[in-house]
Specification:
This is Mediator of RNA polymerase II transcription subunit 32. One of its GO terms (biological process) is regulation of DNA-templated transcription. By secondary structure, the chain is an all-alpha fold. It has a domain of about 90 residues. It is built from four helices and no strands. Helix 1 packs antiparallel against helix 2 and helix 2 runs antiparallel to helix 3. It is rod-shaped. It starts with a helix and ends in an 11-residue tail after the last helix.
Amino acid sequence: MEHPFITNFVYLDPFVEANETEAVENLSILRLSIMDNIVDALNNAYQEFLAAAAGVLEAREASGGRKTSATDAALENFKQHWELFRVACDQAEEFVESAKQRIGSECLVDEATGSWQERLGRLPHLAFRL
């Protein structure tokens, strides 16, 4: 699948050699693939968490609001899916923080070398607002 961002990004610096361009493109595709996997995992964990919450409500309704083994099992399932959802959120947050640090570092290097003027034609401090 071709991503317009990658195509635009690769051709910003006309001085990059062909093999370096391919390496940048491959790295960008890999990063997008990782991000897609994280988003999918987060979505799946959220959907399972919602289903577990619905299971608690259904078990309570079926028991007439009394505590039963079915309501206990539904609550335990809910707790497990809550933890799995929290883990997925933490992983997504770690990925975003990593990306922010990487972008910030790249901007610092670009600012120090002046290469941002050649490649982007705009001020590097814009990326620091992430």
